[in-house]
Amino acid sequence: MGGLSQDPERYALLYQLVWRVRHGEGELLQIASDSLVHRLHHMEKSVRRDVHKMHAFVRFRRVETTEGDHFVAWFEPEHFILEMAAPFFIERFMSMRWSILSPIGALHWDRDRLMIGPPARREDAPESDAFEAGWRSYYESIFNPARLNPTVMRGHMAKKYWKNLPEAAGIPDLIRSATSRVRQMIEQESSVARKRDPEKAVAAMAQKSPKTLAALNRLIMTAPPMVKGGTRAVLGEGPLDPDIAFVGEQPGDQEDLAGKPFCRSGGTDPGQGHGGSRH
């Protein structure tokens, strides 16, 4: 893997390793304190980290062609990792026609085979597409100013990647407005009356003492919804004497639509994927 590094001394270092191993140091790679081994391990970690960043920060943009939609992305890797990173994108986007362009080469997938192309220029990739406005709006809507930590944010998403990420365009404004938004959230929270007292709700159910799941569900159906926008009560399901019981938070939008708890969803909305009773 050291050969994938952009370190200009990579081949000389690998030659040293091979020479020493062939001349009596067969266990050299097990000696972490050796300066050569330490440096090669550092190079390997850097390459693996670059692959991880590529998997995380490639953003495709749709281009309409005579053959149909083609999705194109621009990425600037630190090392020669394109072919190493390719299987991830093939597996995830196998049914799409896509290209990943970079200053060191390009990957092209035609739904059947992978082709390696020459280096590209940034202007060869589209600047944006119609989807990005919606994606940025979603990203900004789930941004929690109360949990803002710019140092941690940059640790997970280094600033050098921001220029190619559509959602990153709004980050400076989100950071600048975080303090005022937190203050506004606190003021709104203090002015909103609690819709339902959990202790009173539990006490009311205890008085009626439902003995069966059906009886408990009847109580749920007759009580008012706790969540604004909900369309129905999401009832519990399953046997009365299970070995394991799952208790969820409030239903997400998929549970509300289906009327069933713990529905699977293909999205990443933090409000999805939780099921159970609203009461």
Short structural summary:
By secondary structure, the chain is an alpha+beta fold.
Keywords:
40% helix, elongated, 279 residues, disordered C terminus, 10 helices, 5 strands, alpha+beta, five-stranded mixed sheet
What is the share of helical residues?
Answer: 40-55%
Please tally the helical runs, counting DSSP H or I stretches of 4 or more residues.
10
List the uncertain runs.
266-279
Overall shape: it is: elongated
* Alpha-carbon Rg, integer: 27 Å
Q: Care to count the β-strands?
A: 5
List the helices and strands and how they pair.
Elements lengths: L9 H13 L12 H23 L3 E5 L2 E7 L7 H11 L5 E5 L2 E5 L4 E4 L14 H11 L7 H7 L14 H6 L1 H14 L6 H11 L4 H10 L30 H6 L21
Parallel strand pairs: 2-3
Antiparallel strand pairs: 1-2, 3-4, 4-5
Helix pairs in contact: 2-3
Describe this structure as you would to a colleague.
The chain is of the alpha+beta class. It has helices at 10-22, 35-57, 82-92, 132-142, 150-156, 171-176, 178-191, 198-208, 213-222, 253-258, and strands at 61-65, 68-74, 98-102, 105-109, 114-117. It has a 5-stranded mixed sheet with strand order 1-2-3-4-5, with helices on one face. The longest helix is centred in the first third of the chain and has 23 residues, at 35-57.
